Amino acid sequence: MLLHKPTPVMIQTMRGAGVAREVIQGVKFFKCSDCLEVSYPVKTAAVKPPSWFAFNHEVIIDVFYIHDMTRNLYGFLSIVDNGTTYHSISLVCEGQWDSQVF
């Protein structure tokens, strides 16, 4: 294996020696086969597609009813942001159980 100076040092030395500009430009693109063998593999940046899950992009709304032991009816409004999974629930009505509703 032959050893050589790093590319910036080679360019500086060549400029000092008055080497032609085309040769210096060629040195910038030169790849030594020995250096490629012992160098670490180039890591590519991990990429992912853009997320469809953004705040307020998709909102899921539902109303559900429950009753307590004394048959009092309670209605709740459930709002979920699908991107952030933020969940808000509010009591929207309460009253007596009405068997005709169900």
What does this structure look like?
The chain contains three helices and three strands, in the order αααβββ. It is 24% helix and 28% strand. The protein has a three-stranded antiparallel sheet with strand order 1-2-3, with no helix packed on it. The model has no long low-confidence stretch (mean pLDDT 82). It is of the alpha+beta class and 102 residues long. It is rod-shaped and about 100 Å long. It folds into two domains: 7-38, no CATH class; 48-102, no CATH class.
Q: Can you tell me the overall shape?
A: rod-shaped
State the helicity in percent bands. 10-25%
Backbone CA Rg: 35 Å
What gap, in angstroms, lies between the N and C termini? 86 Å
Q: By helix and strand content, what is the structural category?
A: alpha+beta
DSSP summary: helix tally: 3
Number of individual domains: 2
Strand order of the largest sheet: 1-2-3
Average pLDDT, to the nearest integer? 82
Low-confidence stretches: none
Secondary-structure element pattern, one letter each: HHHEEE
Approximate strand percentage: 25-35%
Number of strands: 3
Largest sheet: 3 strands, antiparallel
Descriptive key words:
2 domains; alpha+beta; 3 helices; 3-stranded antiparallel β-sheet; rod-shaped
Short description:
With 102 residues, the protein is of the alpha+beta class. It folds into two domains: 7-38, no CATH class; 48-102, no CATH class. Helix content is 24%, strand content 28%.
Topology:
Elements: H1 7-16, H2 21-28, H3 33-38, E1 59-67, E2 72-81, E3 87-96
Antiparallel strand pairs: 1-2, 2-3
